[in-house]
Amino acid sequence: MPKDQGIGASSKRREDIRFLTGKGQYTDDLNRPGQSYAYILRSNVAHGTIDGIDTSAAAAAPGVVRIFTSADMEGLGGVPCGWQVTDKNGEPMKEPMHPILAAGKVRHVGDPIAVVVAESLNEARDAAELIELDITELPAQIDMAAAISGGAALHEEAPDNICFDWEFVAENKEAVDQAIAGAHHVTTLELTNNRLVANPMEPRCAIGEYNAATDEHTLYTTSQNPHVIRLLMGAFVLSIPEHKLRVVAPDVGGGFGSKIYHYAEEAFVTWASKQIGRPIKWTSDRSEAFISDAQGRDHVTKVELALNENGKFLALRCSTLANMGAYLSTFAPCVPTWLHGTLLAGNYTTPLIFTNVKAVFTNTVPVDAYRGAGRPEATYQLERTIDKAAREMGIDPIELRRRNFIQPDQYPYATPVAVEYDSGNYLQTMDKAVEIADVAGFEARKTESAGRGKLRGLGVASYIEACGIAPSTLVGALGARAGLYEAATVRVNPTGSVSVMTGSHSHGQGHETTFAQVVADRLGCDESNIDIVHGDTSKIPFGMGTYGSRSLAVGGSAIVKSVDKIVAKAKKIAAHLMEASEADVEFANGEFTVAGTDKKVAWGDVALTAYVPHNFPHETLEPGLEETSFYDPANFTYPAGAYICEVEVDPDTGVVEILNFTAADDFGNVVNPMIVEGQVHGGLAQGIGQAMLEGAVYDVDGQLVSASFMDYAMPRADDLPTFEVDHSSITPCTHNPLGVKGCGEAGAIGSPPALVNAVVDALADRGVTHIDMPLTPKRVWEAMHD
Amino acid sequence: MTTVSMTVNGKPVSGDVEGRTLLVQFLREDLSLTGTHVGCDTSQCGACVVHVDGESVKACSVLAAACDGAEVQTIEGMANPDGSLGVIQQAFQDHHGLQCGFCTPGMVMSAADLLQKNGDPSETEIREWLEGNICRCTGYHNIVKSIQAAAATLNGQVQAAE
Q1: Which residues pair with B72 in a beta bridge?
Q2: In a designed cystine with A642, which of A429, A757, A766, A773 is the match (CB 3.0 to 4.6 A)?
Q3: CA–CA min distance A726, chain B (Å)
Q4: What pTM does this model have?
Q5: Which of B136, B137, B139 sits opposite A720 (nearest CB)?
Q6: Could B101 and A16 be called an inter-chain contact, meaning their C-beta atoms sit closer than 8 Å?
Q7: Cis before A470 (ω within 30)
């Protein structure tokens, strides 16, 4: 029987009540007394020198409070990058200044040039039209290959537009070359991982406020990690110490990575609100979001896979051009390197792997992590190549994967790309997916489709990802400029209710429900007695935030650590109340008992006594019942699974219909199955969106031509099928207290290769071996008729 | 400035607005009804859907002045009189039809209009009806289930009353 609360229950989400009644508090729903409004004038050319900015007419326009340009901001830092990658030559990556407002040059369409602050947004926008810009255009670098082959440099520091040239694992290079040269079969595939726009439905917003009485700054912002913003902005941009800077991220309407990063607008409103002595609000509109939110993916890759006569993988060699855009966003350098190269073993025993990644500056919006971040790119190149190899060698693609899977008795499994998988069972998830998708019945269905003139295809993909980011020691050695632990305070209030302050921050994942389930399970109390507090640096001890499917694995583990400390202390109080030895006190179902007696004391009595310690042994027991923990994970977690997609292609039009989509995942233990399934659905939608519909397209001049929801094809309800999802294959994580692995990104990682493999399968008889995403009808039709 | 008067969630309201003020701005900024959201600027996303005289309308695409005298209903007016969730709202919670919640008000208002026009929609009809409402979180799977469940509940209520 399903549980009705605690771990394993599909508890209904408590946060839904406010969202369903219009009472959610998103940043743009907030207004501060005396608030003014900012409108940002952005570059409409991709590359140019700023020869002049005349704001005189705009400054005289009605309602204008002040106009700011980079000239007003001398002495402030630039927007920092949080991860340093080392070039193969041993030098650090090129890390050019990213000013808050463009200084001297503009480097992408959307680069902010001037900000008008006015009494109303309309007045700010009207005035901005009166600003006269004198910009001399330079040649725009859009194509990565051209940018690194003598294209005009974006930054003086990087004359060849290369940010870094990275080799991994460098010492394997020669052995990989030899293995490929001598292999029975080598499959080669060149592919593009299309650039995406995250497009959370809530556009970014930032409100800055300064309190002259206390010299305190407050930033309200749409962020997945308010403490990280406080750290980056306070220390590196504005020189405001932590105790004078509060960052609040209230309800956040989706992020998918794009709200991890520290953005220039946050620094601007925080700083400028002090200059004018009034709060300043900036809200992005969607058109602005398309040219100012960090974008995702954008790799061009060549893959070579060497196999022996039995189809065993011998070696993998990859080379990738990774687009950084015009500046380095917060975590951009780690995406094509440590979140990508380390996953190239996939689910397989490939013994030798080498990859080369050149990160390239172009006159486009900065690129950073988007749902999956590096892992979708690795999975796509691997799973597409394996499918092509299977076809070339005449081996069933599922069978070829099975032959190469890491076996269940091989864990812990050290890959040749620097990570150690703690647990997994890839045969099991594959078997589950094959069963649910009825692969055995496919040939009959294909024949039936053919009778209707349709081409049916079946595609499979395995995936593995590294989640629960991340062990601080490891990431520090790899260039991270922060630790990636998580913090949690658990406070038992005098009446026995529990407040949990977590550094994780939901932007739709339902933390308030899931975390309450974990605590309720541990304390044996009702979920409704537990309050989850997040998103405010003044209420939470510290935090690294929510991304990389880390919230439960890392944030949840920090909560468990604090709960365990609470129980330990509560036992001391209970022992005192029952006049028993602490060692004899047992705690279960919210009640303290003494073994072998009928003595018991209720949770509420212990809580009250902690705060009314009239008879405490004060020399050995402190009043109060509150504990704080930092949890630093011992390893990444490794969710994995198998996805199967079945499609029908109309040969006359190139239209692809997804008939069914099966996802069989191993997420380790599951706290709330309903929420986990919802996360998979959403990930699948974004992965299918990438494979079928989405693409950020720049023209040769650097204009983003897919810069609205009219042009950028977001998946709509009638673009997607009903999904079959299964998470019954469970190999618990071996190193965190909950045995959980993380589920947020899986769907977006495994689905693009499954879908593309299905379409290529449908068209294989017509000689099609590859089509680049998105698989628009035009591309599919052209592939058939080439 | 123009004075506009309308009924919002059953209450008469009025305000002075610029001619260019959109209904969604009037609701959010003048009436502080921030449940209606703005997710785009091209009338694509549907986060701002409200009912005007009983029909679902994108509040970003109609001027406040054009709604003078109208009956407007927003997400804030969808709960039962005792404050508990209405049938459609409850179905969204029961079937996890929302994640970040930003598109949700528009989804609920759009679903309500569908169900008053078509009491027993098929999955295809639901998916096609939601063409103008974008959700980035759920993949629509559970939104469709929520609307199907709401339809079943509402049909049950109708049958019980008959």
Answers
A1: B8, B52
A2: A429
A3: 15
A4: 0.97
A5: B139
A6: yes
A7: yes
